[in-house]
Amino acid sequence: MSVISLLMSLLLPALGHARERSRDLKCRSNLHQIGLAVGQYSGDWFDMVPREGIAPWYDRLSGYEHIPWVEAVRKYIVGQSADQLASPVYLDPSHPNPNHLVHYVINGMRIPIKQGRFEFIQADRRPAGPASQIRFPDRMIYMTELTDDRDNSIARQVGVWNLKKAAGLYDVWNNHHIFGKDINSDPQAIYIRRIGPNRHGHNNNVMFIDSHVEPLPSEELLEAKRWADGS
After folding, report:
1. pLDDT digits (tens, 9 = 90+) for 176-190
2. Rounded to whole angstroms, how far apart are CA atoms 204 and 142?
């Protein structure tokens, strides 16, 4: 019996690591598929790539300037005629919160501004813009992991409307969304952190504007310059 217990104690951590590795690879695959869909959208819409989306979104977008990314890629992910936005591609199997139909957030920030020795990000709610105008397409974080949302501050807002009306809650467009707290009592969930560092160990999977996906150390996720589009 002790031999079996010993073997189990050796095997279980290895199995757990293998499961997490599988979830990590699935997450990267999902981000890659989303990246391909964004590229297709950009090809259809004159080089435009979605950034911050208006929340709530009421189907009254002028020129698709503030189209939520989940709506922008819908026909490339779930099909042209599909009414729903939800898709398994939007789900990270390592995400702990079952109350979300989307586990990724998109970059709607602007270039950092310098004040003395310090560098800050200025909230901008960046509309869709040409990919060709982004100076660092291989370095700028374009999409990464959603926070755990431990108190469901974000999930409650999605539930108040629905995913189509509240898709803009899956955008990062002010400092709080990056450096803020995980738990927040604000009824609009504006000041809660929306990114989720350390999703896969010490790394987060990140999709860049050139559509490549790679793990990024959590401390780099918190660097202002990684969110700058250089425009």
Report:
1. 898 888 776 665 677
2. 13
